[in-house]
Automatic annotation (TrEMBL):
Belongs to the GSP E family. GO terms for molecular function: ATP hydrolysis activity. SMART domains: AAA. It comes from Desulfofundulus thermobenzoicus. It holds the Pfam family T2SSE. Residues 225-377 form the AAA+ ATPase domain. InterPro entries: AAA+_ATPase (IPR003593), P-loop_NTPase (IPR027417), T2SS/T4SS_dom (IPR001482), T4SS_GSP_E_ATPase (IPR050921). This is CpaF family protein.
Length: 450
C-alpha cells in the first residue's frame, strides 16, 4: 500500500511540475499576463492563449487539461483556486439560474480546526457556503495569501500577521494569519468596484429595500437640492450600495471628488469625477484620509464624497461639509444615539474632546439629512432595509419616514410610515438649490408606504 501511495504522490508531483513549467513559459512569453487587469477582452485573450498552450501540451493527459487550464488561469489572474467567483458563472442555492460571477460581491476563507479551510461567498446580500475543496490545508492557503501580499509589496510574516492588500483588478483583500488567527490564515475579499456596476435606485426599490415614494423623495429633495447626507447602518446593511444609487442621480458634468481608505466607490459615466485613496507602503501610511480631505478642500468640488467616517478624518470632513453645500458620506451607526456616541469617539481619536453641548451642532454642520439602513434576519432573503430618513433640525432630529416594526412583527409585511414632511425652512433652502418640491412633500397624503 505504501508503494502505491508513493507512486500516486509521484504522479501528482510530476503533474504539478508540468503545470508550473507551462505557467512559467506563458508568463515569460506574455509578460502582460502578470501586469494587466484581466477583465473584458483582455481576459478573453488570456483565456485563448492559456487554453491553446494547455491543449497543445503533450505531457498532460487529456483528463488533466481542464484542471491545468483552471490552475494556470488562477495564477495569471491572481485569483488562484477562487477564480470561479470572479469569472464565469456560479451555481447559487435558492437561485434557479446560473449566477454570473460579477454578482458575487465578497469571498471569505475561514480556517477549520479539523480539516481544509472553508470558503463562503456573498451574493445579493446573502452569504452561502461554497465548500472546503478549494485549499487542501492551511499551509496551501497561507502560501496563497503570502503570494498575494508579496505581489502588493506587503509581506505577510510572523511580525506582520495582518495585511490589507489588493489584487490586480482592485479587489480588496484582508488577510489575518499566524498568531493573530490561531486556527490558521483567514481571508476576506471584497470585489473591486470596477467589477461591479452600481445598482440604480429603481433596482433597490424592486428588491424592496425601500418604498418607491422614499426613493423619489431622496432624488427630488436630497439630490436635486444638493443636500448634505449621511448614510449610516451596521455592517453589511448596504450603505455603500445605497450611496452609489443616490450618486447616480447627480448630473454627469458635475465635479465630484471622492476620498476613501481603499478604492470602492466607482461612478461610471461621470467624466469629471476624481477618486482619491490612502497610500500605504511597507505597512506605513504615507497619505491618509486627513491629507486627502485637505486636498478636497482646495479642489473646488461641486460634490464631495467621503467613503466612510471612521476616525480622526472627521475633522477635515467637517471642514469640507462646512465649506460646500453638497457632501455625502457613510458610517457605522444604527441610531441617532449610536451616531452621537461615534462622533464623540472620532473626535477623541483626533485628540479633541468634543463638548457634549456642541455635539448636535457638529452633526448639523455635517448633515442636512441622516439615512439609517438595516438588515432583517427574520426571512431567508435577509433583506437590506431603509430604517429611517431623519432631518437634522435646530436642536434635534425630525423623522420623515421610518420602517414600521410593529407591522412587520405582526404580519411579516414590509411597510414604512410617512411620519413628517420636511420642515418648511429646509424645503425652501433645498428649492433654492434646485430641489423639485412636489405637493406630496409639503403635505402627507398617504401615511403608509409599501
Amino acid at each position: 500500500m505504501m508503494i502505491v501511495g508513493e507512486w500516486i504522490k509521484d504522479i501528482q508531483r510530476d503533474r504539478e511540475n508540468i503545470i508550473e513549467e507551462l505557467s512559467k513559459e506563458l508568463r515569460q512569453k506574455h509578460p502582460w499576463l502578470l501586469t494587466k487587469k484581466l477583465v473584458g477582452r483582455d481576459y478573453e485573450k488570456a483565456c485563448e492563449i492559456v487554453r491553446t498552450a494547455v491543449l497543445s501540451n503533450k505531457e498532460l493527459l487529456f483528463e488533466e487539461k481542464d484542471e491545468a487550464f483552471r490552475r494556470i488561469m488562477g495564477q495569471v489572474t491572481g485569483y488562484g483556486p477562487l477564480q470561479e467567483f470572479f469569472v464565469g458563472t456560479v451555481r447559487v442555492p435558492d437561485i434557479s439560474r446560473p449566477v454570473d460571477a460579477s454578482e458575487i460581491t465578497e469571498i471569505m476563507v475561514v480556517p477549520a480546526p479539523d480539516g481544509p479551510p472553508k470558503v463562503f461567498y456573498s451574493c445579493h446580500g446573502r452569504r452561502y457556503y461554497a465548500g472546503d475543496n478549494y485549499f487542501p490545508d492551511n499551509k496551501v492557503l497561507l502560501e496563497y495569501c503570502q503570494k498575494i501580499c508579496d505581489d502588493s509589496g506587503r509581506p505577510l510574516v510572523v511580525d506582520s500577521p495582518i495585511q490589507d492588500v489588493w489584487l490586480k483588478d482592485g479587489t480588496r483583500v484582508a488577510v489575518v494569519a499566524f498568531g493573530a488567527s490561531p486556527l490558521g490564515p483567514a481571508v476576506t475579499m471584497r470585489k473591486s468596484p470596477l467589477l461591479m456596476l452600481p445598482l440604480p435606485m429603481d433596482e433597490l426599490v424592486k428588491k424592496n429595500m425601500l418604498p418607491e415614494f422614499a426613493a423619489r423623495l431622496c432624488r427630488d429633495l436630497l439630490i436635486k437640492g444638493y443636500a448634505k447626507i449621511g448614510i449610516f447602518g451596521r455592517t453589511d446593511s448596504g450603505k455603500t450600495t445605497f450611496m452609489k444609487a443616490l450618486a447616480l442621480f447627480y448630473p454627469r458634468y458635475k465635479r465630484i471628488i471622492i476620498t476613501e481608505t481603499s478604492y470602492e466607490f466607482f461612478l461610471p459615466g461621470f467624466d469629471n469625477c476624481l477618486n482619491l485613496v490612502e497610500v500605504i507602503s511597507a505597512g506605513v501610511v504615507i497619505v491618509d484620509m486627513t491629507m486627502l480631505c485637505n486636498v478636497v478642500n482646495r479642489s473646488n468640488p461641486d460634490i464631495s464624497i467621503v467613503g466612510e467616517l471612521r476616525s480622526k478624518e472627521i475633522v477635515p470632513a467637517l471642514q469640507i461639509a462646512a465649506s460646500t453645500s453638497c457632501f455625502m458620506t457613510t458610517g457605522h451607526a444604527g441610531t441617532i444615539r449610536d451616531l452621537r456616541t461615534r462622533i464623540v469617539g472620532m473626535h477623541r481619536d483626533a485628540g479633541i474632546e468634543l463638548p457634549r453641548d456642541s455635539l448636535d451642532e457638529t452633526i448639523s454642520t455635517l448633515f442636512d439629512f441622516i439615512i439609517f439602513l438595516g438588515k432583517e434576519t427574520r426571512t431567508k432573503e435577509e433583506k437590506r432595509t431603509l430604517m429611517s430618513i431623519e432631518e437634522v433640525v435646530p436642536g434635534g432630529y425630525r423623522t420623515i419616514i421610518r420602517f414600521d416594526f410593529d407591522e412587520f412583527a405582526a404580519t411579516g409585511k414590509r411597510r414604512w410610515i410617512y411620519e413628517n414632511t420636511v420642515s418648511k425652512e429646509k424645503l425652501s433652502r433645498l428649492a433654492f438649490q434646485g430641489a423639485e418640491i412636489l405637493p406630496e412633500y409639503k403635505e402627507i397624503k398617504q401615511k403608509y408606504l409599501y
